[in-house]
Design a protein that fits this description.
about 120 residues, alpha+beta, 5 helices, 4 strands, about 15% strand
Length: about 120
């Protein structure tokens, strides 16, 4: 988010302020699961977060951005019926070895610019 919106991040409050100041919500699609290690491929027994209720209770939400393929897969499995636009962007996780940071950063920046956020 810092690459998209600018500002400095030197602590946790700075991270929260970028989210708040730009009217974003940040929430994981998975509320609970079993996972050994950090790989998404080891995720089992998913219990999703109540995203449907969150979107219903916050009707100004216009877009859901999934941070990686696993997030997108989980979102579609449990919430694919929701009438809201969804975009899947490459994971920003350090475990994402399919792209380097510069490619990921440019993809996120270009998508956010094209969405006029």
């Amino acid at each position: 988010m810092q690459c998209i919106y600018g500002g400095s991040i030197s602590n946790y409050n700075d991270k929260k302020n970028i989210i708040y100041d730009n009217h974003l919500a940040l929430w994981d699609s998975i509320g609970m699961c079993e996972r050994i290690g950090s790989l998404d491929s080891s995720i089992k027994n998913v219990i999703p977060n109540p995203i449907e209720e969150y979107i219903r209770d916050n009707p100004t939400i216009q877009l859901v951005v999934c941070n990686g393929k696993k997030s997108h897969t989980v979102y579609n499995r449990y919430f694919g019926n929701l009438k809201i636009r969804v975009v899947c962007l490459p994971s920003t996780s350090n475990a994402n070895t399919t792209s380097n940071f510069e490619v990921i950063k440019e993809t996120w920046i270009n998508n956010f610019k094209s969405e006029n956020f």
